Amino acid sequence: MPDHFRLVFTGTALAVRAALKELIATLAAEGRDDYLRSTTEIVLGEILNNIVEHAYGPDRQGEVELCCESGQDALWFTIRDHGAPMPGLCLPPGRLAPVDGARQDLPEGGFGWFLVHRLANDLEYCRDAGCNRLRFAIPYRRNPEMNARGPVAE
Amino acid sequence: MNLESSGTSDLQIVAVKEARIDAAVAIRFKDRMRELTASGAPHVVLDLGEVDFMDSSGLGAIVAAMKQLGATRRLDLAALRPNVEKVFRLTRMDSVFTIHDDIAQAHAIYADG
């Protein structure tokens, strides 16, 4: 990663695809491993598509700015858009709906924020002067899965 | 959204001929699956061997495709690539589907049944 990577693109699903492709290609060229590339694509895909679908939408178009910096232990991202604010001005918690019930009750959504919280650290959202700003880190080493007793061996 | 259907009246294989099932195509995927599975085969296997990336929208569309089959028909998955398997595993949705290593394994199981 050059120390600082920046992309600006239109808030559409296809532009998000292109942005992800460029970001992941840059990580690959830097020799970043499978874990970091796949985790980055998953997290960024969820966050950027959330902006396209909710911050922007059929009545509101706009651009998205993605900045990435290489830290000691993680990639640090700052994503900005000037779409609608996050409801309640805070991040959705991302709890998974239960999957052990009847087929017709299985969740079709709610996975995105769960994945973001699971895979990214230090998530921070703020709204300022009509702009949404989301910051977060994707660590180079996977986060251990935690249960009540501490880390769970994967 | 390019899906190819093959198989018999008992076992339908739907191969996804796309590299991504994501927000850009999730609704089209769901609609195509509804059309293709209208024939009513009791077992449908979704071959994801060419899919390198699936996001939460794609996962939701696959769940919706299973619900579209109704209560008694099955939707299994086959040939999950690592990026796709990761999302199923992290969300625990891998427990909801029977997952075959490949289409040959799916055929073998249903040939016996």
UniProtKB/TrEMBL annotation, chain B:
InterPro entries: Anti-sigma_ant, STAS_dom, STAS_dom_sf
Domain of life: Bacteria
Stored PROSITE patterns: STAS
A Pfam family: STAS
STAS domain ranges (all copies): 18-110
GO molecular function, one term: anti-sigma factor antagonist activity
NCBIfam families: ant_ant_sig (TIGR00377)
Similarity-based family: Belongs to the anti-sigma-factor antagonist family.
Protein's recorded name: Anti-sigma factor antagonist
Source organism phylogeny: Bacteria, Pseudomonadati, Pseudomonadota, Alphaproteobacteria, Rhodobacterales
